[in-house]
Amino acid sequence: MQSANMLLRKIVRCSVLPFAAQHGMKKDLFPLSRTLSLSLCLKQEKSCEPSEKLDLDEWKKVMKSGLQEEVSETVSEPKELSSLAAARETLEMWRLAGRAVPENISEEQLKTFTECPSKSAKKKYLKYLHLKELQKKNDKRKMDEKRKRRLEAQDQASKTDETKKNSFVCMWSSTMDKAYNWRAAQSMIFGQPLVFDMSYEKEMSVREVANTVRQIVLSESCNRRSVDPFHIHFCNFKDDSLYHREFIKQYREAWGKLLITVTDQCYTEIFPKDKLIYLTADSPKVMKTFDHDKIYIVGSMVDRSIKTGVSLARAKRLGLESAALPLEKYLLWSTGAKNLTLDQMMHILLTLKDTADWKKALEFVPKRKYCGFVNKPVKELKKTLDLINTLKLGKGREVQKQFAKSYPKKHKLKQK
Predict the structure, then answer these.
(1) pLDDT score at 317
(2) N or C: which end of the chain has fewer CB within 10 A?
(3) pTM above 0.90, yes or no
């Protein structure tokens, strides 16, 4: 009996178990083996000792250990897939329930959703994704509306331009351009030179150079449209410099067609020194009248940090005469520095050249910088301004004493 049981065990282990493991018949194998062992035991003697019986628990352990490696490889992937599928099902359920759930969600977002520690964290994460999706949709809708409005505006503009652009307007604009170019060409032969000193690139930042070039472009257009334009010279101009690159950005293809003189030479090498006057706000000498025989130099510099004395030092180093505009003589200056932009300087010089009237010329100074034009002597106006400022500060008795000394009659009348 014992030998028969042993033979049965060996046969099952050697032949049946590997075949069942390969074909996935593990679960069905246990009842078959159990029935075989029991049937043999029943046919023989019924009084068998418990040690002779087959231990089914140990048999299960042996079978599990043999198939553990294969099962672990096949089970790992379905677990991940099942967790993602379950997460998608929960999302669909929450969407049907009316919760804030995104319509489209990627696998990475699903993984982060499953890794959230609590249910509230999952809800917050889904709400964040939902709001992000809504924002993207809103931005796309706005872009589409903006594009649609732009196309409609272009269509309307094209229609209006077609109606406006008749033959007379086109002829007028072309003839005016020809007239301006003819004046600029004449100024290159017969006009009074005006020099822009382009040697201040190292003194400025890239942004300040860009602002300088914009102001020079405005100055050139203003000069081209004037009745008697200057012959503009760009001196100390170097190729492939910041000035050069900014001018190409502004003018593009028209840079090579400008009716101006561009040179890398210094103005002292082109013109005689006795005719050159450097216009700078730091000069102690004040310009009284405009001289048509002189050649004025303007520093091509936008100074936001107000570096005083840079252009004056350059004029002194070259041995040139300098001059400043008579702003204090004709304007009641209130606040701010006395530095003007390059296009304002061009307007002032062109007006002086045409009219020789300082009042008309200085109208191009920004009105925020001065209170009005001077009608009284400058000393008296300075005294009154100082007194007004001290009264605003509230210095009481000292102000009254100064006011009594300067205006004794008015003070007595007030006391009476």
Answers:
(1) 93
(2) C
(3) no
